[in-house]
Amino acid sequence: MAHLLTTEESLVAAAVGLGAADVAGFSAAEEVLVRSATLLNNKVILTLRRQIRLGEDPLGDAFTRIRSPDTRRESGATYTPNGIVRAMAAWASKQPKPDRIVDPGVGSARFLSALGATLPKAKLVGIEVDPLAALMARANLAVLGFAKRSHVELTDYREPCEAFDGRTLFIGNPPYVRHHLIDSQWKRWLVDTAAKYKFKASQLAGLHVHFFLATVLRAMPGDLGAFITAAEWLDVNYGKLVRDMFVGPLGGQSIVVVEPTAAPFPDAAATAAITTFEVGSHPKSVRLRRVKRMKDLIDLSGGRQVRRERLELESRWSRLTHVGRTPPEGFVELGELCRVHRGTVTGANAVFIANADTIDVPDRYKLRSVTKARELIAAGRVLQDASTLRCVVDLPDELDELDESEREGVDRFLASARARGAHEGYVARSRRTWWSVGMRAPAPILATYMARRAPSFVRNAAAARHINIAHGLYPRETLTEHQMLRLVDYLSTGISVLDGRTYAGGLTKFEPGEMERLLVPSPELLREPLA
Fold it and tell me: What is the mean pLDDT of residues 367-394?
C-alpha cells in the first residue's frame, strides 16, 4: 500500500474514501482539500480499511514518510509509536471512566483509536491545526466505528473553549516546537496566562509547555491526563512552569522517563517523559520511574514514591528519577524524612561574623552560629553548648523597629560595612536589603558536607544557626528526640565517602540533593532502642 500513498493528495483521497466526512467538525480548510481529491479505487480503500481495523495506521505512517522529519519539526508533528500509545492507553483504561477523551494534538488519532473500544461511552475529541492530519484522524475514527461519538476540530488548543460537564481525560503527545518558531503573541499569552495562576513563565519555552498551561485552563477538578513530551522540562529553567503546574493545579501523579537508549521516537534521539495527573488532587507522593527498553514499557505503573515536597523544593527533577542501590528492608531515602538545606551565604564573612565593628549591634541580632566545619567535628554526636560559637549579624530588613540608641550602634556598623564594600557584593545586591543576611531557623541536625572524610552529623541541641559551611537537616514530620539521636547515630556510622562526589585530591562533597539520597532507617526503625 505504501506505493499508492506517496503524496498528500493521495492521503486526502484515502481519507475521503474511508469516510472522513462522517465525523463532526469539518472545517473550511478541509473542504478545500476534499474538493480537489481524486477518489481511490475500492480495492485500495478496502485494504486500508482492513489494516486500520487490525490496529495499524497506514495513513499516519504514509504522512511521516511524505513529510520529512525536518518539515514536520516546524509544526511539532512527531507521531507517537504504537508501544507508547498502548502503554498510555493501558493506564487510561484503569482510571475512573471519563465522559470524553481529548487529544490536544490529535494527528492521525492514534490515542483516540486505541481508547475508543476500551472506553465505549466516552466522546472522542481531537484538536488539530493541520487540515491533512485532521482528515486522517476523521478517517481512522470512522473506519473503527467511532464516527457518531467523535468530533475533530481544526483549531489551536490554546484558544478559549466552552466548559464541559463531566469528567475529561486529556491524553496525547503535545507538539514539540522550539520557542523561536512560536509567534510573539502566543509567547505573550503564555506569560500573561501563567501570571493569572501566580506562576512565572519564560518566553523561551517550547510549544509543549503552552499545551500544559492550556490544559490547566480547560480542565476541571477530577479530570485526568497523560501526556508524553520531551523530558527537558524536568531540568531546564523554562520548564519550571511545567514543574509548578505538575505539583500544583494539574495534580501530578507520576512521571515515567523513557531514555534515549529505548529510542522512544525513531526520528528523534531524545529522552521522553510521560506524565500522569488528576486535576485538583494533592497526592503526598509522586511515582517516578525510568525505562531503558521499550519492551519494559507495558503500562505506566511502578516506580518509587517521592514526596511531593521534594519536587516542590527541587529545581532539577531528572536526578530524582534515577534509582540508586536497593535499600534494605525498612530503609528510606533521607530526603523522605528531612529536607536538606545548605547554610546561609553571608556574602562577606569578615563583615557579618561578629568582630570589633559589631560591638554596638544589639545582641538579639547577633546569632550564635556554626561558622567552621571543625566546630561540628569537635562537637561529636550532639552540639550541647553554643556559647563558644561565633555570632553572625543578621539585621532586619526594616531598621525602623530599632530604638534611637540601638539605631546609632547599627548605623556605625553599617558605615563600617559599607567602607569595606559589603554592600557591593553579588550576594548583598541580590538581597532585598543588603544588610539583612536572612539566617535560616536552627536545623535540628547539622552536617558537614565537604572534607576528605565522611560527613559529620550532629544533633543541634543548642539550636545554633549555620552558614554555608554546613547543611541543615529539617525533618518533614515530627521526630522524637530518640529518633533524631538514632538518625544521627546511623548517619555517623553508616555513611561512606563513596556516597558523595569525589574530586581530585580525595576531597568529597555532598550536595543537598546527594545527601537526601542517602539511605537511612525509616521512622519505625528509628523508634527502636539505641544499640
Answer: 95
